[in-house]
Amino acid sequence: MGTILAERYRLIELLGTGGMGDVWRAVDEHLGRLVAVKVSPLHGAGDHLALRLHREARAAARLSHPHIVTVHDHGEAVVDGQPVAYLVMELVDGQPLHHAVADGVPPVADVLDWAEQICHGLQAAHSAGVIHRDIKPANVLLTAPHGQIKICDFGIARAAEHSRALTATGTAIGTPTYMSPEQIRGAKDIDARSDLYSLGCVLYELLAGVPPFTGAGWSLLVQHLERQPEPVVVHRGDVPAELERLVGDLLSKRPQDRPATAVDVAERLRVVRARLQDPVYAGTAAARTITAPAPARRVVPVALTVPAAVAPARRTSRPTAPARPATGREAWPAGLATGLLAAAQLALFTGLPGVAQVALAATVGGLVAVGYTLEAPEPSGRPVDVGVSAVALFTALVVAAGVLLWLVVWSPAPWWAALLGGSVMGPVLVGCSSAVRSLVEHVVRRGWLHSDLASTAGLINGCVAFILLAAESRASLVGAVAVGAGVWLTAALAVGALLPCRRPH
């Protein structure tokens, strides 16, 4: 009963289906043991899935470790007239690790234990010269009943000495939610520290209940490249400070800023676990609290695994979602700075009455303050799809509409040139807003929202400078644009420096 594969493996139960094919519970008729068999249909010579299975078999064959799923055999066969590639591995009685956070975050002690086991498995792979390159909860199995960790799916692993050839085309390979910055860039020298970054993403998710970065497509990849995640304690107050620092080190953008080896990570995890056994220390760690945004919706990528029934691990309830942060305290000082800078420009370059100057300055500054006070940010504090907030996006589009109107009605430029320039102004200003926001975030070390505030304040003042210069008949259009851009950048940095710093550590 059941299909016989390669005259040896009897397929008896379908366990899962994914992009790599189907996974079956099977019996090895020659040895009389239960195994898991991954079966992928072939579609011709050089089939991509077959090559991945072959690569996984060769990579895993170099490894023998209690925390790595053992691969027994691989090959090609014909099933019901259809050519297939297959991979035979040990049958793990367990479930993917992301199931551990499906109903709430696990206890810190459990997370420490699992992470330390993952480190042992990774160190075995790295010592054998194998880089996994796709560490994620779906590729880490938690066995029953003892809670042993097993790393699986070496389908995109490569020997370290061959990683340069694999990425020579600049192709990013991996799962975006857990990819290291160097993977995203398609670096030619990916090493074991890329796996440690992915481990940091997994550790963050196990502790916080959400990945360090959420979203989709390029916006998610940009966050890995440029942004710092919220501190773990924002989502969960009982995370020890030493563990929070370790997660931050693992998520460093530059590989050289991360721990050098999985052994180093395991040692730091062991120290934290030992300290948690001290009642005084554990009480201090549990007392850490912080008011923070509610966790964003967790994104779990679909992946092929070997699920099986298992008793649920001990879990704590998901942290209560606290209220959204009050942005008014930061928005009103930024609005005041915006108005003062605009008033100074109006006083220097126009003959408007003082009352008119104050009214105009108060209007632009008030719009900034009110807009950011009323806007409810996305739970992570950052927009998912664009690099600026709704207020910054609206401001950029309003400025673009004003520039288009000026070009068409008052500028000496031909109507077709005015329309063309005004049409591209919106996307250009939105892109520049994101760039200026990022510059403020990194230069004056402000949080995402503060940097966005500063960028918008600078844009408004840059627009004021452009209008004032463009109104001068002696000023060239190019000169007005250059001065406006300079005022934008200078004002953004100045406003950003005036706002309070809330970056972690």
What can you see in these coordinates?
α11 runs parallel beside α15 and α14 packs antiparallel against α15. The N and C termini lie far apart (62 Å). About 12% of the residues have low confidence. The chain is built from 16 helices and eleven strands. The radius of gyration is 28 Å and the shape is elongated. The strands form three sheets. A six-stranded antiparallel sheet has the order 1-2-3-4-6-5, covered by helices on one side. The protein has three domains: 88 residues, 2-Layer Sandwich (Phosphorylase Kinase, domain 1); 193 residues, Transferase(Phosphotransferase) domain 1 (Transferase(Phosphotransferase), domain 1); 171 residues, no CATH class. The longest helix has 29 residues.
Overall helicity: 40-55%
From the helix content, strand content and strand pairing, which structural class follows? alpha+beta
pLDDT < 50 stretches: 159-171, 289-327, 376-386
CATH homologous superfamily grouping of the largest domain:
Transferase(Phosphotransferase) domain 1
Average pLDDT works out at: 76
The N- to C-terminal Cα distance equals 62 Å
The H-and-E topology, N to C, reads as EEEEHEEEHEEEEHHHHHHHHHHHHHH
Task: Give the strand content.
Answer: 5-15%
Number of domains: 3
**General shape:** elongated
**What top-tier CATH class of the largest domain fits best?**
Mainly Alpha
> Could you name the CATH topology of the largest domain?
Transferase(Phosphotransferase), domain 1
Q: Please count the helical segments.
A: 16
What's the count of strands?
Answer: 11
Q: Main beta sheet: strand number and arrangement?
A: 6 strands, antiparallel
Radius of gyration: 28 Å
Largest sheet: spatial strand order: 1-2-3-4-6-5
Q: Architecture of the largest domain in CATH? A: Orthogonal Bundle
